[in-house]
Amino acid sequence: MNVIILEASPISHLFRDMRIIYLLLLLNCISPVSTHAGIPRNGNVPDTFIRDFGVKEYIRLSRKLPHVENTPWDLIAEMPYNCHFQPIIQVEGKRGDTINLNSTNPLVRYLTPTETFTMTAARQSYEAKNWISGEGALYTIPPGVKVISVKYRETGYDTRFAGSFTCNDEDYNILWRKGARTAYICMRDHFYDCPDRERVGFWGDGTPELDQCFYAFDTNTHRLCRELVLRELDPEFYPGQQLEFLGEYGLWYYYMQTGDLESIRKVYPATRNFLFNVYKPGKKKQWFDWGKENKDVAIMETCFMYIDLGSLRKMALITGHSEDTISIDTKMDSIRRNFHTRYWTGSYYKSDQVAEPDDRANAMAVNAGLADRSTWENIYRNVLSVKTYSSCFFDRWVFEALCRMGLEDRALLRMYQRYRTMIPATFTTLWEHYDRWWASHIDAFDEGSSLNHGWNPPVINLSQTIAGISPLKPGWESYAVLPKEAFLKNIRVVVPSVKGEISVEMNKTTERYSLSLHSPASTSAVVGIPKRSFTLMRSIRVNGELIWDKTYIGNVKGVIWYGEDESYVMFSVKAGNWHFTADGKLSLESPKKPPAPSDPGILLDKHSWTARASVTDSSFLFSGDDIPIGVSAQNALDGDHWNGWRDMTRTQYPGQYLIVDMGQTQHFDKVVLDNSWAMWDSPNKYSLQVSGDGIRWGEPIAVGKGNPGMTTITFPEQHARFLRVSQTGQDSTYHWSIYEMDVYRKKTNKTSFKGNVKTPDAGKKS
Predict the structure, then answer these.
(1) Could you list the residue range(s) of the whole structural domain that residue 340 is in?
(2) What CATH number does the domain containing 535 carry?
(3) Using the 8-state DSSP alphabet, how is residue 275 labeled?
(4) Which of 169, 156, 183 is nearest to 428 (CA)?
(5) What letter does residue 320 receive in the DSSP assignment?
(6) Rounded to the nearest 5°, which phi and psi values hold at 757?
(7) What are the DSSP E strand ranges found in 640-693?
(8) What is the rounded distance in angstroms from the CA atom of residue 735 to the CA atom of residue 724?
(9) Is position 244 within any domain?
(10) Is the peptide bond before 195 cis (omega within 30 degrees of 0)?
(11) Which long-range CB contacts under 8 A does 748-751 form with residues at least 24 apart?
């Protein structure tokens, strides 16, 4: 095993080091999983588990083909989603002409050698030998070479998207879909942290990725999960991540989902040794989260140790090591006796390592069961409602703590607020950092962070916690359906369990709560009707038969009374189809306004458009290193949101502009400026003008302030050929970027015109 240790360094040096290591990786000079510190593993998943999805057409090209130019030019080709792909091209030219192929993702271009193809005949086709990742392909074409066609081959882990989650609020549907897509491209021969930068098998990233497999994909992914479970532990490789994995969220999670007792038997001795002898609390660089500083590690590692010991106790009993329960109980009792006295301040839990309470530490105290109910109100009021130190990796546990406390509405609101810039973004995946901030050290834009990071947990949060579907016995022999839908009015979920698909549909009105369940063969389910959804619950019926009328009546075959607590009225049902209806009074009020319905409009065709800016075309050095990334004005029109225009002369100042020539008069009423890649480059202030000739400009048709990532500008319908968006404010920190500019007209607009958007009467004069 090769071990590479990176010394602490500025971010630009760090990513330069990563690039050197990644180049060695691709040249097979080092182990393909040792790009950070050497990862002991039991071997890669065989290539037979990698699926070839075949050759596909791009959904958009920046130029209509065939196409040739007299100067070097770039062809940008867009896929429908982020994926692993190999670009393909067919060209005409002369021998010796060289074409470059890569991803439009700047991080891929920075870390992955650009593949080149040198022509040996007048007409040739070429397919890239190595896969890369992204949502767009970048072909760099020399003068005089005609591009006849381009396509791509998609590959990926051999599984299908078998699970699903939908509800009445599209924001959460988007998060689930983006979360599932992110998890998918972060697995191949093992679980990656991300496919565009390191492809490292961190235990931290692997934990939520493993968990998401059981709710998003078919059982083929269980091979990867087993590989992670059986991986040899390494006390030198971020042991805090391994502590997060060795309990309810990793090993035991895997066992409950699969029932794979043999793997648990294999890892039990090493797990016990790690928890009792190897892990040393209080050491530096344990790593528990990538989020902001103020990390209360003392509390976090105590909570995870307690959780792991609880799982170890259960593992001991099922693997024939019951004698170990004495020492496990002794250690758990010691933690439980001392925790509250040592860390409770009267208002929250806090160690002397930090100056103020940490949301991560207090959430884990709740999840571990070390914070009793008497502390919950203070924890929520003083910490979880006001602190957001956790990253999108650790927010999973803050979310679960809020739901455990009966505050699932607060959990859903927190999820929405923290993902507020990822939800509307045109990227199909979820990012490494909230708002693209390098949150560990400073609040600043981090160009080197990935825009597809597998540690994002919405799939688990929504399918398991909010829908409430989770195994009670190993291998889904028995499972729970205990919804925590909060202000959501309907939910539809499919869980691809090892016993077969479990489907649940929940709907509620002001007078009725209904829940339909399909439970596969050889299973039983505990179904709970949530009391918190009601102001008054009168009765419950199952398949039309009255079964509860303030008390259990019990006259439905296959249904057994399971009890009642402060949260649910519960029943156990056998395999089959069940429909529960509960009548009463329900409140449908929501603290979150659902996304407003709107006419998305018709996107105008930009293929023939041109752009120029207040500064000459330029490039910038990615992460301060020697990889120039072009940021020409034309990039704002190429259809790719990874590839954009930036004014790199200095930070934002009044007078910056981008002018677009649409080639002919167009009718339009909306402009969208997308700078999600450079999130904080949104215009401090903007002004939008139109012109018929590009010389005479009228008064601004819209003015305002930019939003981080996506700025939507609406106005009364215009009839013009030229657009000028100007930056009229000032920002001393950030540049101004437009990574993509889109122009729309309403679908409901009946006006006909001669333009490059087809309408039923296109071609007639307006």
Answers:
(1) 164-466
(2) 2.60.420.10
(3) I
(4) 183
(5) T
(6) -115, 120
(7) 645-647, 656-674, 686-691
(8) 18
(9) yes
(10) no
(11) 748/599, 749/667, 749/669, 749/717, 751/667, 751/717
Partnered with residue 612 across adjacent β-strands are: 659
The answer on 491 and 351 residing in a single domain is: no
How many beta carbons lie within 10 A of that of residue 545, not counting itself?
Answer: 12
Q: Which tokens go with 284?
A: 């530096």
Between the two ends of the chain, the Cα-to-Cα distance in Å is 71
Answer yes or no: do 24 and 85 share one domain: no
The one-letter code for the residue type at 343 is Y
Task: Say if residues 75 and 62 touch (Cβ distance below 8 Å).
Answer: yes
Same domain, 553 and 609: no
Q: Are 675 and 635 in contact (CB under 8 A)?
A: no
The pLDDT score that the predictor gives to residue 42 is: 36
Task: Tell me the Ramachandran region of residue 51: left when phi exceeds 0, alpha when psi lies from -120 to 50, beta otherwise.
Answer: beta
Surface-to-core class of residue 618, CB atoms within 10 Å of its CB (0-12 exposed, 13-18 middle, 19+ buried): middle
In a domain, 511, yes or no: yes
Phi–psi pair at 501, nearest 5 degrees? -70, 130
Dihedral angle of Cα 746, 135, 141, 144, to the nearest 10 degrees: -40
327 lies in the same domain as 178:
yes
DSSP tag of 445: B
The strand pair at 656-674 and 115-118 is best described as: unpaired
Find the helix or strand (DSSP H, E) in which 554 lies. none
Q: Convert the pLDDT of each residue in 205-231 to its tens digit.
A: 999 999 999 999 999 999 999 999 999
| Shared domain check, 222 and 173 | yes
Residue 471 lies in a domain: no
Domain end (from 440, 466, 492): 466
What is the domain count for the chain? 5
372 and 458 inside one domain: yes
pLDDT for residue 598: 73
Decide if 504 contacts 180 (C-beta within 8 A): no
Whole-angstrom CA distances from 438 to 289, 445, 564 are: 13, 6, 47
> How much is the pLDDT for 624?
72
For residue 369 the two structure tokens come to: 């069961």
Last residue of a domain, one of 414, 445, 466: 466
pLDDT tens, residue by residue, 376-404: 999 999 999 999 999 999 999 999 999 99
| Residue ranges in the chain modelled with pLDDT below 50 | 1-16, 18-43, 750-766
The Cα angle at residue 261 between residues 255 and 262, in degrees rounded to 5 = 130
In a 10 Å sphere around its CB, with 0-12 CB exposed, 13-18 middle and 19+ buried, how is residue 280 labelled? Answer: exposed
Number of C-beta neighbours around residue 222 at 10 A: 20
**For residue 686, is it within any domain?**
yes
Which pair of tokens denotes residue 8? 């602490």
Please indicate, yes or no, whether residues 145 and 230 belong to a single structural domain of this protein. Answer: no
CATH number, domain at 677? 2.60.120.260
From start to end of 217-269, where are the E strands? none
Is residue 462 located within the same domain as residue 535? no
pLDDT (tens digit, 9 = 90+) per residue, 560-586?
999 999 999 999 999 999 999 999 999
Residues 741 and 719: their CA atoms lie apart, in Å, by 18
Distance CA 654, CA 656 (A): 6
